[in-house]
Amino acid sequence: MNVEIQPALLRERFYPRSRQTVRPARQFAAETLHAWGVTCRHDDVLLCVSELATNALLHGVPPGRGYRLRMLRYEGTVRVEVHDSGGGRPRIAGRDPGAEGGRGLLLVAAVADRWGALARVPGKVVWCEFAVGPGVTVGAGEPGGGL
Predict the structure, then answer these.
(1) Burial of 81 by CB count in 10 Å (0-12 exposed, 13-18 middle, 19+ buried)?
(2) What is the reported pTM?
(3) CA neighbor of 49 nearest in space, from 78, 77, 91, 85
(4) 3-state class of 54 per DSSP?
(5) Quick one: which of 2, 9, 25, 92 has the fewest CB in 10 Å?
């Protein structure tokens, strides 16, 4: 069996601690998906970018800091990571059905194929993954771009 291995594609961007950065984070994610030729799961990915960025801003980014949005494409998968320097572990909390907030990770868990969190120093990485089809095409995207 002759299998061609494609390298992972990576794009990332840093955002300051401001609620106004959620929209630019979504735009960056949309541009990245377009550059990589990913047309399926587009809305799911953008929803999760919004939720993870918002959660980082509300619960994970200390004053004077920011968060990093990293997107990877490999082996038919798109992975979204949000890195912050705050403490704590994200969890899906039981919420009052009438509450206006508190459903971000519940949405991520419902829409993404997988999600989780990893410790880092300082802070954490909250990630989610989406199956988007076969391997990447040669020359798509820009490895390590976006900084």
Answers:
(1) middle
(2) 0.82
(3) 78
(4) helix
(5) 2
